[in-house]
Amino acid sequence: AGLLIRPHPQNAEQWQDESLFAGVENVVIWPRRGANPVATEARAHYYDSMYYSAAVVGVNTSAMIESGIIGRPVYTVLTDAFSGTQEGTLHFQHLKSVNGGLLYVANNLNEHAEQLAGNYQTAKDPKSLAFVQAFVRPNGMDTPAAEVFADTFETVAERIPRVTARPSLIQVPWRALLYPLALLARDQRD
């Protein structure tokens, strides 16, 4: 099997050494400097990295959820080195538990290798689908999440009472005194 290592854009420095995996077949670090998938081409490469993978392995990142949306099985290995960013975070607990969890979790590398060997599949991963249905698309797979978010945001905003702040009696004369100074300062700045 080929292995694509896609460095997280904030942790790409550790993958800069060209000798990493030198002489090891079927292993590629790409993009070696990491890439923040915000530009069109970078987003396309990011998506393709997941779409054309049989499985995705990560520590704790949004790419895990995005891989689940595409239908890929998502794996992780619990380690002491990453315990703060894994077991120590609420969202990682969601990745492990919501509707059966998204993640195939291993406690060591041997268990991880066994999971990868035993769960290779070409169809969409049922764990990923169950997680996405519960966590990402709880209103149905065909309901756009952006619309649900916008409707929810508007509903909550309507419930918040509008309060207009009125200056106190002491603030009124101070504002009258300081206003010309503020205008002068603005003019000096410009």
Count of individual helical segments? 7
The strand line-up of the biggest sheet is: 3-4-5
Residues in helices, as a percent range:
40-55%
Shape: elongated
Kindly summarize this structure in a few lines.
It is built from seven helices and five strands. By secondary structure, the protein is mainly alpha-helical. α2 (62-70) links the parallel β3 and β4 (74-77).
Report on the structure:
Helix 2 packs across helix 5 (126-136). This protein has helices spanning 40-51, 62-70, 90-97, 109-118, 126-136, 145-159, 171-189, and strands at residues 3-5, 27-29, 56-57, 74-77, 103-106. The radius of gyration is 25 Å and the shape is elongated. Helix 3 links the parallel strand 4 and strand 5. A three-stranded parallel sheet has the order 3-4-5, with helices on both faces. The protein starts with a strand and ends with a helix. The longest helix is centred in the last third of the chain and has 19 residues, at 171-189. The chain has seven helices and five strands. It is mainly α. 44% of the residues lie in helices and 8% in strands.
Write the layout of secondary structure elements.
Elements: E1 3-5, E2 27-29, H1 40-51, E3 56-57, H2 62-70, E4 74-77, H3 90-97, E5 103-106, H4 109-118, H5 126-136, H6 145-159, H7 171-189
Parallel strand pairs: 1-2, 3-4, 4-5
Keywords:
190 residues, 8% strand, mainly alpha, three-stranded parallel sheet
